[in-house]
Amino acid sequence: MIKRYFLFLLLLMCVVGSVNAVNPTVPDMCTSTEFYVILSDDTMSQDLVISTLSAYDFSVSAPVISGIDSQTIYFESENDLGRFCSIISTTNKVLPFAGAFDVYKNGERTPMTVILLDGQAYTPYGDSFYQYVDLNMTGSQIGHVYAWISNTYSQNYLTLLLNDATVVSCSGDSSKTQYLSSTFFQNNILAIHWKNLNGYDRLTASIVLFDYVDSATYSPDDRCDFTVSEIYTPPERATIDIYTEPAVDIYNNQNNEFLGTTDNGGYLALPLFLGETTLKFVKDGYWDTLKTFTVTSENNSELIITMAPRNAIFQVSKEFSGNIYPNSVASLSMDVIPVKTAYATKLRVSGVEVNKVYYQTQELPKTADGSYIIGDMSSPQNIVIDFKTTSSWGERAFTVELSATDIEGTAYTNLETINYNVLELPFLFETPDQWAIGSNDVTLTDMSGESYSVLMVLYDESGTEKWSSSTNLLEYCEYTFEVPVEDAGEYTLELNAKSGTVKSYYSIEIIEPVSLISDFLTASPGNVATVQFKISNPTESVKYYTAELSCPFYNETVDKTFSIAPGTVEKTVDISFEVPEGLELEYYQLTLEVFNEGDTEPIYSGNIVLTISTSSLFLASVPGGNTTLILLAAAVLLIAGTFAALRLKK
Description:
Largest sheet: 6 strands, mixed
Shape: elongated
Keywords: Membrane, Transmembrane, Transmembrane helix
Organism: Methanococcus maripaludis
Structural class: mainly beta
Transmembrane segments: 629-648
Radius of gyration: 45 Å
Number of helices: 4
CATH architecture of the largest domain: Sandwich
Protein name: PEGA domain-containing protein
Strand content: over 45%
């Protein structure tokens, strides 16, 4: 009988010791559950995790662990997860592993906030007062409370209240520690009732809420030396605006957690934790689409997902690099995923001027029919299309067609509509009505109200830089660049602003405004010689010019002022001079310069070779030399001689 009694007591002690265990026990076999944490330090070995965890003294209640796998710790229930996420004890007011872990509840990563209440109060004889802590929760929910209270006087009374209901209380000269799971928080207020007869009371409480808490505040009281602190802050989230097909179910691809469904317009605002994440988009009649991207704290982040119907052979996702501005070159990156091996793939772009197409980092040539040959495709590939943007801002669109066949010869066509937004330039750009050889004024005026650097570069048609200049454009101020052009030809003016984030290009064509009819001239001394040239006026206004002819045998230039009507093409202009007698040389070089009215730099400068004729014939000089006139004179003399001979015969 005594032995049986002794065995019963021993068994009872074992049971009691098990119930009141303060150190967690880690089983040999790991049983995964939907309640777990993943430690942030992935360098910790599993043995180190177990030894560290087993050394923690959780006071009155330790969490029940169902297993450990590397840095993942599984718990038997939400209650055990809540206990693990509380402070370890009143003598060790920190979280296990210093709170360096992510929390998962019901298999989904969840936000968590842990509030620590800690301090003491002194009340005079018979005094009683309440202190209220505002938790600022998002709504009613289940929380987990670990509390320790202590009195220093036999008639003291201390109570921690939640919605006027006692959470834990202690009376008399004693202390009490308690862990309360599944505590229902109906509103934001947590009340502490300090009541005693001339003495000190102490309170330490850890409150775990699997949610975001904006702040935890309370009104200070002179009778209290008390702190309220947030010892675990949930990871920051950002809202991503998702645009895709209507009624698309979106999942976290890591754990297949359902996140939401797009509305009838294909839109869903989705709060996501910062960092890299992969979403899965699912809809009947479409191929499932995966998208990996990085969530940042920037506001108004957008994600545009194009889903491929089941009768298409490609899944295509599209992304533009940077902002798009007028008169620029935008870059469209397309990730093309073949659902099955695609053969003889072709790409065709319509509705926009294509600059270049890259496939596997190589530029593709454009074929005679306007398409680009991709070839066979069996794995995900990237295609980049550089295209020229319009000269005006606003919403724009073009189409990209991908055609291919499968191994059975069945033809497929993906027709992708590319929508993009051309942003308004932050500055007003003013150029000359007509670019010309010489200096051309280009004026920029800021319209954004910000200061930023501007770099302007002029390239010739071969891409060689001919000129560049930069300035710091002040808010709402203007700056004029003087762009020099030395020769006629085709040029590109590039504008870079705001550290290269704003780019715009402008094509410039400068036609030679003046051309000599001939650069050779023959004249006799004492005769009048005439230099002829052609000049055009492509503008919409009357243009005024001055022509200056420099002759080595004149001290001054021979000048002529003239005007040209708008839209005139190749008007012939004469400038004449008399060749003086007694010239010693046979050849002279003349220089012709043509100026815009009021300018000191010529728009044209050319040389004419003047040949001095020694013939005694009555020859007048003509443009292009006197050969024609000499032949004509010879013919006249020949005819005259013939008539004279005939007369003598008679």
